[in-house]
Amino acid sequence: MSGEGIGFGxxxxxxxxxxxxxxxxxxxxxxxxxxxxxxxxxxxxWKIIDNRKATPNYKEEKINQQKESINLMLKKLNIDLSKxxxxxxxxxxLYAASGIGASAASCVAIARALSQHYNLDLSNDEIxxxxxxxxxxxxxNPSGIxxxxxxxxxLIWFEKGENDVMDKIELQTxxxxxxxxxxxxxxxxxxxxxxxxxxxxxxxxYKEIFDRAENIAYLAKDALQxxxxxxxxxxxxxxxxxLQQIEVSSRELDFLVKLARDHGAFGAKLTGGGxxxxxxxxxxxxxxxxxxxxxxxxxxxxxxxxxxxVRRSGE
Length: 315
Ligand code: MEV
What we know:
Layout lengths: L1 E13 L10 E17 L4 E5 L7 H19 L8 E8 L9 H16 L6 H16 L5 H8 L2 E5 L5 E4 L6 E7 L6 H14 L1 H24 L2 H17 L5 H12 L4 E5 L6 E5 L3 H13 L3 E7 L7
Parallel strand pairs: 3-4
Antiparallel strand pairs: 1-2, 2-4, 2-5, 5-6, 7-9, 7-10, 8-9
Helix pairs in contact: 1-2, 1-3, 2-3, 2-4, 3-4, 5-6, 6-7, 8-9
This protein binds (R)-mevalonate (MEV).
(R)-mevalonate binds next to helix 4 and helix 5.
């Protein structure tokens, strides 16, 4: 018996952090994925072989969180490994880095592989629930946006609540983006905790910022539906400013954001937890996409060229 599963990487296009407090956010799966392969093992318990390419130190820094995450998923599924164990192998073309859903993609991939290996026949909704449990191992109280994008693919309007809202946003034509990697591994738990602390200290200031973030989400949805990318880019720039105000940006993120804008990106912002990790730049044209990616690479940073708004993820 063996199992295999896939989970997509993601880029948050609007409102990371704000989403934790129920503000709507927009996220897209990206065409890069993690694959989990599962084999029966002779020894009890589980063992992992992590063959993903990764930002230096990423795997080392996340090893305890990964352990916790896998244990949480096994517990939620009531899988007992005290007699027969399993070996999990992670691979795929998603570079493991902060901000592009590496943890969520691995949770979804492992949940799918477990489902196949143990003949559980889990639906996508159930996979999403298990992966959410796994995400708790990486960052305590996740909003669920990452595992949702990683499970279902596509471009998604997401609102955390008693019952999460998840609506697909359909584009006529997928639009090009560049993801730029600062090369810094970031701790999402610390970033989320920092926002909480500052928000509690400055409720009035934060209310104003959060209100504007909410407003931006609705304007961005309209801009996406109209395929008005000039407007969408402006809103991304403004969203980055709000993220700076809640202090989750960093010198490297601001540098890459400015570089992308200076080379013609319609808009750019940090993506994911911040304090390191990645930026997303809107570059609706192949030449512009190349131009922005080349400029970032010339400065010694890694890029990923992809699109958002694909109807079926993984293309
Ligand atoms: C991390 O990719 C996104 C955050 O908003 C945290 C979360 O939503 O759980 C920072």
